[in-house]
Amino acid sequence: MIAVERIESPAQAADAQAAIAALDHSPGAWLGCDVTAPGQFRREAMVALDPLLSFYLDGNLLRVVPHGDVGRALAGKLAALATFERVQGRLEIAFAASDAAPHPVIGLLRRFLASFAAKPRELGLYGALAFDYYRLARADAVIDDGRRRLALFLPARVLLTGDAGHRWIELRFPGLQPVSGAQAGIATVQPERFEDDLPAGGHAEAVARGVEQMRRGVLRSLVLSQTFRRQVQVDAPTAFARLRRDNPYPAMFFVNLGGGERIFGASPDVQVRADAQWVETAPVCGTFRRGGDPVEDHEQAKALINSAVDEASLALCADSDRNDKALVCELGSVELLTRRRLHFFSTIIHTIDHTRGRRRPDVDAFDIVLAHATPATVTGMPKTDARAAIAELEAVWRGWYAGAAVRISADGSCEALTLLRFVRLIGDCAEVRTGGSLLADSDPVREEEETRLKAEGMFCVLAGQSPRGPMVSAPPPPASRVCFLDAGDALAALAREALVQAGCVLDADAPLLVRGDGPLDALRTHEAASDDRPTLALNNAALALLEQDGAVLETLAVPQYGRALDCQAVAGGVFDALGDFRVGLYASHWLPVAALPAGWVLAAQGSDGRVIAAVHPARRTVALLFRPDAVLSLQRSAGRLALLAALGWLASVPA
Questions:
Q1: Is 560 exposed, middle or buried (0-12, 13-18, 19+ CB in 10 A)?
Q2: For position 475, what pLDDT does the model report?
Q3: Alpha carbons 6 and 19: distance in angstroms, whole number
Q4: How would DSSP label each residue in 129-192?
Q5: Distance (Å, rounded) from C-alpha 1 to C-alpha 77?
Q6: What's the whole-number mean pLDDT along residues 619-625?
Q7: Does the structure show a pLDDT above 70 at 529?
Q8: Is residue 345 pLDDT above 70, yes or no?
Q9: pTM (predicted TM-score)
Q10: How far is 186 from 215, CA to CA, in rounded Å?
Q11: Between 19 and which of 47, 68, 230, 459 could a Cys-Cys bridge form, CB atoms 3.0 to 4.6 Å apart?
Q12: 50 φ/ψ angles, rounded to the nearest 5 degrees
């Protein structure tokens, strides 16, 4: 047995960025979570540094690269477990084809981890598994094609970061005699191609063919992807730091695979994680853009929750995931903890399920990771048929895409983060592969647009921009001095706040008058002093002015408070720039467009035919028949823009 000593020491927040910089030059892995959701996600990371051994499986050829004197000593212990050939300082073994389960490399790695006398959580294998690592479950399923499906590292140091603090863990092996020698390596990785997988429209064609298979009943769901490539000059650690800051996700990873190949990204999908008791997963399906403001966010979230396609897609993924879990969990223990929980990320809204099961005592970390390979979230259902369709319809092999960034620890714990929303860097070539989950009623054009949306966000990061896109600062509004008259409005303070945010300075002697909202009956009887100043009347104050001019208001059967109404500005009118907009109503009465009194000019109307805004040029008066300060008037800043347009017109209209 190999003795192990675990030495813990404090770390600083700055060590995290230094660790990423180190990964830019040396093999190793960062696996973490940068979001918090009670009971589901917590901010933490494990960073594997200073590799002692690197393992690469290319087809059926395993190459083991020792690093340093201690690494060469450990390689000697590993060599006792199998018949290796020594090649330029590496250990190599070509596995023969067999029908064994699992692949012999899994058995070898198991025996190696079992050879350590102590098994701290940090001691283990960190790195990446390619998309079709599911083949490792059976030796005869691995194609001897030379493709790299496994890159794992045994580290000498691990950095733990998170809300609970930062710690360094150093792993030492007392009694192990260092072995001197030259440093071994592996060949430099070369890009397979430099152009995109498909021309514009090509992915939509592939999606259409996949949809046809689903309509014929061959598949229930399918995930198709494509790769985009660009020539870049990028500082990868800085780009990853920007991604962590501006686009935090549950699955953050930076893996230096060796041979000049690096991958880093921000994925929504935790493929699996397990401790001594539980096996957990968080399948993701359903993607809508974030809105431009909180109200639009809410509308987008409603649309996502109400999407039957996205609901069904996640249901299929969750059922497949629970089936995977049942393979490694105690019978009867698999449960759904949350269903379609909304998660708002920097640019996208996702729905995520959360499932878990009680771990069976006879399974290890390798069993758990292999059981969850190629989840339905990245393949479709049934998984075997979906994988065959992917091989037929996608232009090139997926490689690392939809595989996993993994930690397989000697203590039996593990985690696998699905490799999505990431960039692969080889020299100055950057690859970004993106895809989406399809059902029989999916729209091929929309699906292609979604892949491009996801890819452009990552290319923005590589270009030194935020994935949220450039921040456009609106110019400050022109200053307007207004006199605000409160007529008993329960939300008068909010009305003042909205006016100030629109650039107003409140002044009783101001040249513009704003008549605030209030109870309609009180406004009807209110005798205001004669005032010939240009006037803006809000909500019930506007209704009262119109009624004084002969308008006959209609009583709503049910008052509309805190309700939204879609509206349209009159072309060429005061509010023309608003176009189609939405406002918040606080109304017990309304005025049909046809009942607008003489002298008043319609400026905007509601989708139900009511007057929403009108102007009286002769009196220099604007009537807004809604509350521009209401939360439902915040969407696309409609309320603020309406105030600015009204105040601007009042300031310019001749006396």
A1: middle
A2: 61
A3: 19
A4: E-GGGGGGGSGGGS--S--EEEEEEEEEEEEEEETT--EEEEEE-TTPPP---PPP--PPP--S
A5: 9
A6: 95
A7: no
A8: yes
A9: 0.82
A10: 47
A11: 47
A12: 55, 70
Question: Cβ neighbours of residue 548 under 8 Å, at least 6 residues apart?
Answer: none
Residues in the chain: 655
The residue to which tokens 């966000």 are assigned:
457
Contacts of 302 (CB under 8 A, 6+ apart): none
How does the average pLDDT of the chain come out, rounded? Answer: 91
* CA 9, chain centre distance (Å): 34
Q: How many beta carbons lie within 10 A of that of residue 251, not counting itself? A: 30
Task: Give residue-wise pLDDT tens across range 417-427.
Answer: 999 989 999 99
Phi, psi at 58, each rounded to 5°:
-115, 105
Q: What is the CA radius of gyration of the chain?
A: 31
Q: Delineate the domains of the chain, giving CATH numbers in brackets.
A: 5-183+194-462 (3.60.120.10), 480-652 (3.40.50.880)
- pLDDT tops 80 at residue 655: no
- Give every strand in the sheet of 554-569, ordered side by side: 504-506, 480-485, 512-515, 535-538, 621-624, 611-616, 601-606, 554-569, 580-590
Give the residue from 283, 286, 285, 284 showing the smallest Cα distance to 303. 286
Q: How far apart are CA 522 and CA 293, in angstroms?
A: 35
Q: What is the mean pLDDT of residues 554-561?
A: 94
Query: How many Å apart are CA 488 and CA 591, to the nearest integer?
Result: 22
Q: Which residues contact 569 (CB under 8 A, 6 or more apart)?
A: 575, 576, 577, 578, 579, 580, 581, 603, 604, 613
Cα–Cα distance, 482 to 130 (Å, whole number): 65
